[in-house]
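Interim report, section 4.2 (structural modelling).
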Amino acid sequence: MTDATTALARAMADERLRIVASLIRTTRDWDIAEDAVADAAERALLTWPRDGVPRNPAAWLTTTAQRRALDVIRRAGTERAKLAEVGAQQAFDEQGGTGPVDHGVLTDDRLRLVFTCCHPALAMEARVALTLKVVGGLSTGEVARMFLVPEPTMGQRLLRAKKRIANAAIPYKVPEAADLPERLDGVLAVVYLVFTQGYAGAAAPELAEEAIRLGRLLRELMPDEDEVSGLLALMLAQHARRHARLVDGELVTLEQQDRSRWDRAAVEEALGLAMPPGRAPGPYRLQAELALTHLRAADAADTDWRQIVRLYDRLLALQPSPVVSLNRAIALGMAEGPHRGLVALDELADHPALQGLHLLPAARADLLARAGRSAEAVAELDRALTLAPTEHERRQLARRRSELA
Amino acid sequence: MKFLMLVSLDPTRDQSDEDLTGTLEVEDWVTKYDDAGVRLLGSQVRMAEDATSVTRRQGKLLVTDGPFAESREWIVGFDVLECSDLDEAIKVAAEHPMAVGGRLELRPFVE
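Predicted structure of the assembly:
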């Protein structure tokens, strides 16, 4: 890479989002905003190697993109375009035009963009696509490949989403304080969905990394919202274990994972996001603390299982869920002996949401094996094997069975 | 900008859910948003069995009783709201008791 391309890559990584976000506000046109930034980057590739890298590459890109956007609006020449042009010109003038980038206003624009892309009046699919494309800065082709759909399909999805923002009158703003917690939950749900799609292997694994990048951005934009830090810590803690979780195509349980294969950089980043004292933890924070408790342990035996049970209790108080209850029962078995865990599992046996799933028999098998009741554990594993949804899980259960039988 | 808010019954809704948290009595809702200049117009309308459909096909006027199509949701009223954007319209709609008793649909005017 030449100096010019390196400088451009760095300036785009730092500033693309700010520039797009402010152009959407001033032009009220998402396509013009995105195209203008892409155009400015192309121009930089032509002129920077020839004329040298400007002293302030970010300001150069901002100004060039603004001029380009104004050009496009002018050329459209419609009444509406003229109004937009006047508005955009005023907004640029207020920002100081060609002057240095005004981070105060522009930081707000990035948040506006995030909340608009994740607006509840958009379908979840549209929110995910818009967030990756416009906030994450991926190309339509990249987003399409990650979700294993043809590029024109993704292009249509993005086009419809942008049209809907305009036609349904979805505003470009950060929600009022009273609505913020609920709307923030919506933003976090989009990011976590991107992460889990990458993590579960239903789509490209790069999605997990994109989600973490979005998580870091949200934390930068909303440093005081603990659920944002909690979500980032949760994703990092899960991501840290990726190479230990899937070895040679085989799923490995947390207990049996080779902890030296954990990604130390991700572990350290996650541990650095611990909960500040005196806060009431939300659901992402509690899930993060669960994951962090595992990360802090040298091995399964060293894990603070009583703390894990307490965290599950708090999570269940906020969000009752049979799957969380099941995990709590397993943790209780680890903390207080398999018998206590089996009693807790028995209380869940009739829960309608767990019928037909392998989770309950697999958990029973685990606790029965710990209690030395191998024959009963094998019988439960046989039940679990008939119910497991994926080949990975079936192979993992079969391995467990052959160890016991 | 103006929004048409369609007020419908929802036969599929859980009848046991009578939690009116966050909503106003309909008279109070009307007064509040009339006074605020948000609600420009609105009314209950007769049920679907009293509807009349009007169409012209190949120039021929066709008047029939009943609504256009058998639908699972029945429009029972409407309001026209003046709001700055969808978020504001959602806030207004969310305080209407039919958000619990039925469903509300917001349609921005084409302007």
